[in-house]
């Protein structure tokens, strides 16, 4: 059996679930297409639910490009982070370009950091363009992404205020989320700063998150940067998308749309225009998502810098994404195959990556110091023998705890989370991987997996995030356990498999 590749095509089924804005767009579009016989009536209701068109969007229309119905279209989605006392359209938190092309094999998506600057140009950040209005942002993006060979066009604009997010989460009934570490800030030392940040206290581990806590979690940027926050938003919405029941969208689509649409501003103002976008969206349902990576580097001023060549590369990949590569998901520790006589072939013992070392003692100490050994008693505790070189277990973040039911009124399951901080020289700022265990035998995380592999005699289910393994999940008669990669997937696939392979029952002493 050949050694596994560390690459894999993106996981299907997350078409529009990678960002907060896309979740809102799902509600907007699915509510109009869930029942084919009523598509026209539903689109009329959605359009009528939109608030009055703003002056900013009227100006944005002038900057948008015309496109024939049915042709590929590029949509700009903007998260308007206007705070109390500010007018909408002054502060952009998230900027995402989505390409809807029914002839393409993938749906491409390009996220632009708000603190983006271009080498060789001015040091004015991209967010400053939005402060001048969405038309200025559209013009700036088209300027940055156009090349002598190809003009970059933007056809639609959707702005959604972040105020909609907590309302939308509560309308859906909250979501179970895999929180990588503890997020805490009360603007007091040692985490405080001379500049006050939003307060937050969200603990580590797989848990039910509702409106305000969810909003605090996805917006957190103190001690992080835009790239880390975008990854956090992506993973949150990926989990949420998997938990949204189709029946809820069908039977409560209008109610959900009205909850969200009052926070939406868009150039799509007619039933015909909405139906055109919806039909394109239907044409790409089932296609994998290709998230285009824009090459950036951190600057001393806290900005993210790219180059004209980097922008040209991203634009080319966005407009012409090609087909996803098919890579066989296997493992050199998989169950050995059989010969023609029926005997099992001998398989070589996989080598431990040189980037991992002995970590059993540190893991056991973490279980004891964090209280996991005391607080998690419903099922066996498993810890890894291996740890990434330079990584450190976080006693103050790791914990044992109870997991709330879907309605939040009971706590039928126990959980524990081992939090491991990745060496900053290797993973960059704000990267933590973890080991999660729970007495819950069928958590929603199982629905995120698309493949499986045998490791050390155990069957692990695999969740991919693009080319990297996001989670390796092991279901047992007593509960469910998984190895969780960092937000930016700092661990390679080989490291993820080796750590999962090394899981062993915890014994004190």
Structure description:
With 509 residues, the protein is α+β, with helices and mostly antiparallel strands. The chain has 15 helices and 25 strands. The strands form seven sheets. Strands 17, 18, 19, 20, 21, 22, 23 and 24 form an eight-stranded antiparallel sheet that branches. Helix 2 crosses helix 10 (271-284), helix 3 (55-63) packs parallel to helix 5 and helix 6 (163-172) packs antiparallel against helix 9. The longest helix has 18 residues, at 226-243. It starts with 19 loop residues before the first helix and ends with a strand.
Name the shape in a single word.
globular
Approximate helicity band: 25-40%
Content of β-strand: 15-25%
Main beta-sheet strand count, sense and barrel state = 8 strands, antiparallel
Distance between the termini: 39 Å
Mean pLDDT: 79
- Integer-rounded radius of gyration: 23 Å
- Uncertain regions: pLDDT < 50 for 5+ in a row? 1-24, 26-39, 83-89, 325-332, 335-339
**Annotation, overall tally of beta strands:** 25
Number of helices: 15
How does the helix and strand content classify structurally? alpha+beta
